[in-house]
Design a protein that fits this description.
mainly alpha; elongated; about 0% strand
């Protein structure tokens, strides 16, 4: 019987990095449209949180989903690359 771990498979490493950078760019797009961009964040925030939970399983993924949602809802926090930070946590920090 195989032992399951919460570690992400290595084959997802590059996919998750590229997808994370792309999703961070989408989250930062609201800076390009003054006033309307903040309304877009209200739509993007729950989507961002759900994608984070889908990409990163377990407790850390759920926590990252909540953090991503809050980061997108709060004004002037769009510059934080939450997906890329979660990638670093998952594949670099957690592996150490």
């Amino acid at each position: 019987m195989e032992k399951q771990t919460n570690a992400a498979p290595a084959d997802n490493k590059i996919r998750d990095l590229i997808l994370g950078i792309l999703l961070d760019v989408i989250g930062m797009l609201s800076f390009s449209i003054p006033f309307l961009g903040e309304f877009g964040d209200l739509v993007w925030a729950p989507i961002s949180g759900l994608i984070m939970v889908w990409m990163y399983k377990g407790k850390s993924g759920k926590l990252a989903g909540i953090v991503s949602f809050i980061e997108e809802v709060l004004p002037a926090t769009d510059f934080i690359p939450s997906f890329t930070l979660m990638w670093f946590y998952t594949y670099i920090i957690k592996k150490s």
